[in-house]
Amino acid sequence: MIGIIGGVGPLAGIDIARKIMEETLAHTDQEHLPVLLSSQPNRIPNRLEYLMGVEPRNPGHAIAEISMELEKTGATVIGMPSNTAHTPPIFDLIQAELAKQGSQVRFLHMIEEMAHYIQQEHPDKTVGVLATNGTRNNGLYKNTFEKLGMACLQPSESMQTKVHEAIYDKTYGIKYVSSPVTNRAHDALVAAIQELKHQGAQLGVFGCTDIPMALKEKSYNGLPVLDPNRILARALIQATSPEKLKTDDH
After folding, report:
1. Which of 3.90.650.10, 3.40.50.1860, 3.90.1530.10, 1.20.81.30 is the CATH number of 2-109+230-244?
2. Which stretches are transmembrane (predicted)?
3. Model pLDDT for residues 38-82, shown as the tens digit of each residue
């Protein structure tokens, strides 16, 4: 059974649950896969603030506890739709806590799943990544991709500021105004994609699960883009019921 760590952020958990359904071969309600979504944002400290040194509590402790609860309820594989929570200071603690508890659940790593997908479906392409400051500064995508011999581009410092603000600004950022997303946030992200293309990117990756709420197309300015939430959704299906996975058209 698939388990989802929700609440990081809350809309991302709902989004990946929907994408699991969209990527599943099913013609009736009963043919869909069982999915457990645990969305408890009140229990999980802010990931970015922890990485910045503002929040003293490592979110990995709470995430590991919720993972154990999902496992006890029947989950055999778990996905977490949060890029920042996969940075080593947090994700390594989750893995250590689960091992200490004797957990047998398989916890997929979102960024590694994205890297493997690109290697398989888009080999030898230069990738440009849009992400929050926390994900970028920890080198999450860049380090993962470059270890596998994949070229990884990032926005300039000035453009990175605009990307981060498009997500976190309290007046127009996606985390604060998401239904609908503001034009200012949308346009800033599209401009960042254009810059990545000018740098030489042949493929774009949304390194924040909030970005697909603003950018829903499969390409922008002629640059194909990938949504880690959808790639993780497909990996979760592959891990539990590969015969139910739709043919990839992304």
Report:
1. 3.40.50.1860
2. none
3. 999 999 999 989 999 999 999 999 999 999 999 999 999 999 999
CA–CA separation, 206 and 130 (whole Å): 5
Tokens representing 27 are 């013609």
- Run of H or E residues at 106: strand 106-107
197 within 8 A of 222, measured Cβ to Cβ: yes
pLDDT tops 70 at residue 96 = yes
φ, ψ of residue 180 in degrees (nearest 5): -90, 170
Choose which CATH entry (3.40.50.1370, 3.20.20.450, 3.40.440.10, 3.40.50.1860) describes domain 110-227: 3.40.50.1860
User: How far is residue 17 from each of residues 3, 29, 71, 161, 237, measured CA to CA in Å?
Assistant: 10, 14, 17, 30, 11
- Residue 159 C-alpha from the chain's centroid: 21
Cα separation of 163 and 192, whole Å?
7
Burial of 139: CB neighbours in 10 Å, binned 0-12, 13-18, 19+ = middle
Q: Name 21's Cβ contacts closer than 8 Å, sequence gap at least 6.
A: 32
* Residue ranges of the chain that CATH labels 3.40.50.1860: 2-109+230-244, 110-227
User: What digits encode the pLDDT tens for the residues 183-238?
Assistant: 999 999 999 999 999 999 999 999 999 999 899 999 998 999 999 999 999 999 99
d(CA 205, CA 221): 14
